[in-house]
């Protein structure tokens, strides 16, 4: 066993000396591998970062949450002309489902797509997303209160003129002052601030930090919230342990009955499930990963060919030396490991350089985009990059190494001379 360790050690030393003696060739070989490893690991890191940020954005929402609305959250086979004729869900339908569907943990009527100016004293912030909803929206979307409270069921039903501010919006309006009990204007109407949300951070879509939350019935008092009115949705979540398929069936039948649809009539609404959305995202992420791996794979193959080419040249240059080594008693394994280690060391150094560049790129990218998106280089991707480098070294170096180990000592010396 000791002799094999000695062979390994001497082969490794020969490989390192060969790389030192051919610095330009070594650099060019490293460059090819570095670019290849950088390409594939950078793509994988970007896709991982995207997946992580999306899932963190959705982490507060239960996957069983559903949204009844005239709009589809994903691809659909329903033709556009039919979708355009779907009615908006109404507050009356929300109340009907609330009374007649069992196993509901939380349900909320939500008016969306509203953007208004928010005014406080002499300060005005334009284009603020407004969430007009019933009180259960806080539980469904898992919003947390930092100061004050969310509006109650009574305030929701009566349409009380109260408002809850997103954290960033509150900072922009009030600075370090306490906003509780102050009066702001939204839709040109006065509302009393009763709460401020905890900092959420950036995610998919509009962040709650920039929004205002107020009772849906307050907005319905001066806008058309009916079937032909402003966009709305009914968000709901079944109780834990409920059969999702049975719950969806009951929910669909109740809404069809409320709308008077006949048996042969198709649904004129969409039941969008968060679980379907996450599955769609997983499919997109998997496709991006595959495409990125293929693109990076081509770079890796090019780098592998470069290593193989360099190794063949190295065998040709050192034919005389190989012949002398073998004539002095060097075994085939010694020569084989000598060239194989040279290829692997090249790829490992190139891979390490590529991974280091990806790490630098993630730091730069994260600093440029700020808190809105975090680029990460996972430990799994680092290990994957190292394994790929070793595999490329083995694959690209095995044939030249095997060819060198099979040389006849006399012919090798004669050829070298």
Please give a quick description of this structure:
The chain is an alpha+beta fold and 417 residues long. The protein has 14 helices and ten strands.
Question: Can you offer a commentary on this structure?
Answer:
The protein has 417 residues and is an alpha+beta fold. The protein has 2 domains: 195 residues, no CATH class; 182 residues, no CATH class. It has 14 helices and 10 strands. The chain has a 6-stranded mixed β-barrel. β2 and β3 form a beta hairpin. α2 packs across α12. The chain is elongated, with a radius of gyration of 33 Å. The relative contact order is 0.18.
Measured as a percent range, the helix fraction is: 55-70%
Record the strand order, biggest sheet. 2-3-8-5-7-6
- How far apart lie the N and C ends? 36 Å
**Backbone CA Rg:** 33 Å
What's the β-strand tally? 10
What letter string, H or E per element, gives the SSE order? HHEHHEEHEHEHEEEHEHEHHHHH
Beta-strand percent range: 15-25%
Give the overall pLDDT as a whole number.
Answer: 80
Count of structural domains: 2
Q: Outline, from the CA principal axes?
A: elongated
Q: How many DSSP helices?
A: 14
Backbone structural class: alpha+beta
Which stretches are poorly predicted, pLDDT < 50 over at least 5 residues? none
Main pleated sheet:
6 strands, mixed, barrel
